[in-house]
Specification:
Order of helices and strands: HEEHEEEEHEEE
Structural class: alpha+beta
Largest sheet: 4 strands, antiparallel
Number of helices: 3
Helix content: 10-25%
Strand order of the largest sheet: 3-6-2-7
CATH class: Alpha Beta
Number of domains: 1
Distance between the termini: 10 Å
Oligomer: single chain
Number of strands: 9
CATH superfamily: ACT domain
């Protein structure tokens, strides 16, 4: 499984990235071998949320065993181009990415979750010490 990671700058929120992926003829993931994992949850998971829902959503992740925190920039919550906040969630083991994305996406206040299970890549170009490996899904 390859963990798809987008820029942490939040210039293009995950919802917009999913829209771009949906409109593409082919979704190609480009990653280095550090992103190749056995299960999702190895890296912090970004979740874009409406600011007033942050505390409640953080508590819901805590019930799942995760530790969520609001992403900060210069000591203040980072605000996306769409005016939302991003939670970075650590400590999860996501064994069923489709079910996880479906569940979390239904929580009131979640704009989008940084799991692309419903719109997974067809191809991943994985940079390794031996060169580029092509993974087909």
């Amino acid at each position: 499984m390859v963990k798809v990671t987008w820029s942490r700058a939040a210039a293009l929120p995950s919802q917009e990235k999913k829209i771009v992926a949906a409109q593409s003829k082919m979704f190609v993931c480009i990653a280095d071998e550090s992103k190749l994992v056995d299960h999702l949850g190895t890296f912090p998971l970004p979740v874009e949320v409406i600011p007033m829902a942050s505390a409640r959503i953080m508590a819901q992740f805590a019930k799942m065993g995760g530790q969520a925190q609001v992403r900060l920039k210069d000591g203040q919550p980072l605000v996306t181009d769409n005016g939302q906040h991003i939670l970075d969630v650590k400590g999860l083991t996501i064994s069923d990415p489709v079910a996880f994305e479906t569940e979390v996406s239904q929580w009131p206040g979640v704009v989008t979750v940084g799991v692309f299970a419903h719109q997974k890549a067809q191809v991943c170009l994985l940079g390794t010490s031996e060169g580029v490996k092509t993974l087909q899904f």
